[in-house]
Design goal:
The structure is a single chain. This protein is of the alpha/beta class. The chain has a domain of about 250 residues: Rossmann fold. Helices cover about 40% and strands about 15% of the residues. The chain has 15 helices and 15 strands. The longest helix is centred in the N-terminal third of the chain and has 17 residues. The site of NADP nicotinamide-adenine-dinucleotide phosphate has 26 residues, from helix 1 and strand 8. It comes from Hafnia psychrotolerans. InterPro entries: FAR_NAD-bd, NAD(P)-bd_dom_sf. This is NAD(P)H-binding protein.
């Protein structure tokens, strides 16, 4: 019976991974251990259940998670949980936990690199470990502008990281490969995860607000035709579980992405947001605008976006605008070769993202990405 340790289950991706497993008909044959930050098991359990409720699981499905499924721990202090003997029985790990923020979190390196390495080294000593799936990020490859990034390409070390987050994600992959050479380690790098095909942004408004903000401003740093490699969180979760349990995988590195053909041009996002909100598209008014030019109009942000801190909005434009300008696609041939279906196109569920964010201001929606 697989005994899977999942980290980050109180978050967006880890929550979707648990959701995916709980919906499987053979779920009774799987044991789960969930690493979560909390003072005690009861508090950890309640954090996990509250997150899973966003995925509309039934009471019966939720009942499969109990306090015994909880491992209390913080990757900033891994020595406090790595001696738990339940880890010795783990057969697979899906490591979703990380500080996934573009902000300047002072413990970013401590959690994403130092703590994660200690945790990986501990799991490398588990005799029955069959797979350690580590969730990276496609942007860690620092792709060239306008390029397609293929899975067999080395990271572009000559390009500069736009944020420390991507540097930390690249560093930990390299360190685990160096220091745990015998561990059955697989890296899955998702592109940009936005919403859920069934529940829209209910599980998380992460990044969707960037599109809404750009549409409201009728300006952003990218062209109107720029391609955005977006995947839904439930697709990402399905792939992670497959990479975790599939006995026959050929590679130790995968992109989870929409691939060359399925990227969504920004103008299409505008069209489908307009349709779902019953508003006009901005096609005739959109203006590609540099960060520098945005600084000059910062005082208008409140009028356009509602109550907000113009400094934070400018910072968001700088951080997310830098990625949007890249106009990059991530090839997903390895998943296609495994017979894994393509992700649902963003346009097919944008309406659900619009509905589930209705009535919330940009300031409210963006909070999730500035923890
Ligand atoms: N969202 C995307 O677009 C995207 C794209 C590519 C890759 N990824 C990767 O996907 C993974 C999950 O991201 P996400 O979007 O799900 O982010 P998220 O919603 O912020 O979830 C992050 C998870 O990591 C946990 N975590 C953070 N610091 C921790 C610590 N010190 N010790 C233990 N757990 C800790 C969080 O726990 P708390 O609830 O206690 O904070 C939460 O459960 C990350 O590795 C990220 O790099 C995400």
């Amino acid at each position: 019976m697989p005994n899977i340790l999942i980290t980050g289950a109180s978050g967006f991706v880890g929550g979707a991974v648990v959701e995916h497993i709980l919906r499987q008909p053979l779920v009774d044959n799987v044991q789960l251990l969930l690493l979560v930050r909390a003072d005690d098991k009861a508090a950890g359990f309640s954090r996990i259940i509250n997150n899973l409720k966003k995925f509309e699981l039934s009471e019966q499905q939720l009942a499969l998670i109990t306090e015994d499924s909880i491992l209390i721990g913080d990757l900033a202090e891994p020595e406090n949980f790595i001696n738990d003997t339940r880890l010795d029985n783990i057969t697979q790990v899906i490591n979703c936990a990380a500080i996934a923020s573009f902000g300047n979190n002072p413990v970013l390196w401590k959690v994403n690199v130092d703590g994660t390495l200690i945790f990986a080294k501990r799991m490398a000593r588990v005799k029955g470990l069959q797979r350690f799936v580590h969730v990276g990020t496609a942007m860690a490859s620092m792709p060239d502008k306008g390029s397609v990034f293929y899975e067999d390409m080395p990271d572009n070390d000559h390009n500069e990281d736009l944020v420390q987050y991507t540097a930390s994600k690249r560093a930990i992959e390299k360190l685990i490969r160096q220091e745990c050479p015998l561990m059955p380690f697989v890296v899955a790098r998702p592109s940009i995860i936005v919403g859920h095909t069934q529940f829209g942004c209910r599980p998380s408004s992460s990044i969707f607000w960037v599109f809404l903000m750009a549409i409201k401003l009728k300006k952003f740093t990218c062209t109107f035709d720029a391609n955005i490699d977006v995947i839904p969180v439930d697709y990402c979760a399905m792939v992670l579980v497959n990479l975790c349990l599939n006995q026959d995988i050929q590679h130790d590195f995968y992109h989870i992405s929409s691939g060359e053909e399925m990227c969504t041009p920004f103008h299409e996002i505008d069209t489908f947001v307009a349709k779902a909100s019953n508003t006009k598209t901005i096609i005739d008014e959109y203006k590609q605008t540099s960060y520098q030019d945005f600084t000059g109009i910062r005082k208008q942000f409140k009028n356009i976006l509602g109550p907000c801190n113009d400094k934070i909005i400018l910072r968001a434009i700088k951080l997310y605008g830098g990625f949007a300008e890249l106009d990059v696609k991530f090839d997903n041939q390895r998943l296609m070769d495994m017979g894994i279906p393509k992700p649902a196109p963003f346009r097919s569920y944008i309406d659900k993202c619009v509905t589930t964010t209705r009535g919330q201001s940009i300031s409210e929606l963006m909070m999730v990405d500035f923890k």
